TrEMBL record:
Stored InterPro entries: BACURD1-3, BTB/POZ_dom, SKP1/BTB/POZ_sf, T1-type_BTB
Pathways per UniProt: Protein modification; protein ubiquitination
Main location: cytoplasm
Domain (BTB) ranges: 40-108
Organism: Tetraodon nigroviridis
Keywords, sorted A to Z: Cytoplasm, Endosome, Nucleus, Ubl conjugation pathway
Record's protein name: BTB/POZ domain-containing adapter for CUL3-mediated RhoA degradation protein 2
Length: 324
């Protein structure tokens, strides 16, 4: 006896007798047949969202809905009598509100209004289409903040001197390097740029943020208040490896946050309190010898202090893991 004939007969019959899958049953009918009994309310299934609304609302304006529920256009219903509309039901409630009241408070956000406009065009609701179009034409998206990118020293100086707000400048230019970068330098450079973007979004109303892509540094932060430089955070260092020199980019996040908050002391046009000013000054006698250009308006007795923070500049260790 062959292997095919060894199967039980009832097993073969059960496989062949399996009925094919079928979709939910719907039927096409007029509006009167779908609702029945002269009911004044209509049950709608719009993309899986159920609505129960009076007939007079749907037939108030000349639209696709009026054609559907005045007997001019056939509709689909399910076995429970819900009228099926193959559209998204996300904004159908807003459409019913407009048909009921003749006006509508449009949703917030340009994207939501555009979605509502697409639905209004599908249902041929002329008044709602005009309302959405007028709103989109009258409302333009404004940027959260504007960051000037300086391309010359004169432009940078003009922005800093004319600004009534403190200034934070980031210089980043990856090409300003004659050595190879360490393994984490690119990642740290991106983190500095991301931090600059976060700070500009948080403090753009109080601080002027500037980007400089042609400076001499690879990655350097500068902080200004009332037209003068307050501090500088240089994020690059030279690593003396056994075989060759490498450039390393650091990410001193805490220091950058600290200096940014320090610039807020110079936020207003009037001078800060004298005690705050003294915190950023130091006696000339404790600073060693300096050139006349570095001396402040107080002469040799007192000069403006510029804090320069160089992160691990001229490091004498190698970043490579042990054993390599």
């Amino acid at each position: 006896m062959s292997g095919d004939n060894s199967l039980p007969q009832h097993h073969v019959q059960s496989v062949c007798a399996r009925p094919p899958l079928s979709c939910p049953k719907t039927k096409i009918c007029s509006y009167r047949g779908a609702v029945g009994l002269g009911n004044k309310y209509v049950r709608l299934n719009v993309g899986g969202n159920l609505f129960y609304t009076p007939l007079q609302v749907l037939t108030r304006e000349n639209s696709l809905l009026k054609a559907m529920f005045s007997g001019k256009k056939e509709v689909f219903t399910d076995k429970e009598g819900w009228i099926l509309i193959d559209r998204s039901g996300k904004h159908f409630g807003s459409i019913l509100c407009y048909l009921r009241d003749g006006n509508l408070a449009l949703p917030k956000g340009r994207q939501a209004v555009q979605e509502l406009l697409a639905e209004a065009k599908y249902y041929f609701i002329k008044g709602l289409v005009e309302l959405c179009q007028n709103h989109l034409q009258g409302s333009k998206e404004h940027p959260l903040c504007e960051i000037p990118v300086v391309t010359s020293f004169k432009e940078e100086e003009r922005l800093i001197q004319s600004s009534t707000k403190p200034v934070v400048k980031l210089v980043y230019n990856r090409s300003n390097n004659k050595y190879s970068y360490t393994s984490n330098s690119d990642d740290h450079l991106l983190k500095n740029i991301e931090l600059f973007d976060r700070l500009s979004l948080s403090f753009n109303s109080r601080v002027l943020f500037i980007k400089d892509v042609i400076g001499d540094e690879i990655c350097c932060w500068s902080f200004y208040g009332q037209g003068r430089k307050l501090a500088e955070v240089c994020c690059t260092s030279i690593v003396y490896a056994t075989e060759k020199k490498q450039t390393k980019v650091e990410f001193p996040e805490a220091r950058i946050y600290e200096e940014t908050l320090n610039t807020l002391l110079y936020e207003t046009v009037p001078l800060p309190d004298n005690s705050l000013l003294e915190a950023t000054r130091r006696s000339y006698t404790t600073c060693g010898s300096h050139s006349e250009e570095e001396e402040g308006p107080g002469g040799p007795e007192l000069r403006e202090r510029v804090r320069r923070i160089h992160v691990k500049r001229y490091s004498t260790y190698d970043d490579r893991a042990l054993g390599h």
